[in-house]
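Table 4 source record.
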Amino acid sequence: MAGALQSSVRDLRPAGGPVDVYVTHYGESYNGQGLGCDDTVYSSFDATIVAVGPGRERDWPCGTAFLICGPGGCLWAERRDGCPGCSPYVLDLSERGLYLVCGAGAGVCTARVQAFQPRRACPFQPAGLLASAAAGGSALQTLGGAIGGAVAAGVNETLGLAYSGSVAARCPPG
């Protein structure tokens, strides 16, 4: 499990409070099809893809960053598509994303999600920044990158995660 927070944002801020959702997945038949928010294509192996339903499009526009925590662990991802059939309490992930959040063999699970918006505009590209659950509670362990310190404290508070360490996120210069 390796990842990097590439050209993330400086000072992400929570966009509302945490929300309990059901996490589902696209399906391998979508591989190679275009995503609605950018010019990339769907891949079952890209854990950073999130699709939201019409009831959340205004709250969570394209580019919204998410920390999604379920029974299998936590995952940083980004809204990159829409899911016309999803209710406001369903997120669609890739097969890899579902595995990381829900665990092996799960087709769906419940998860807690916190959406984040940048304080200033720059692209959030999580590239698989992951967190995993630890025995006796959840521990946010970032791999290959991290988020802003104030956000980490907010994640602690809003998602009930145990977290320690200092972190920093950056926008690319310019």
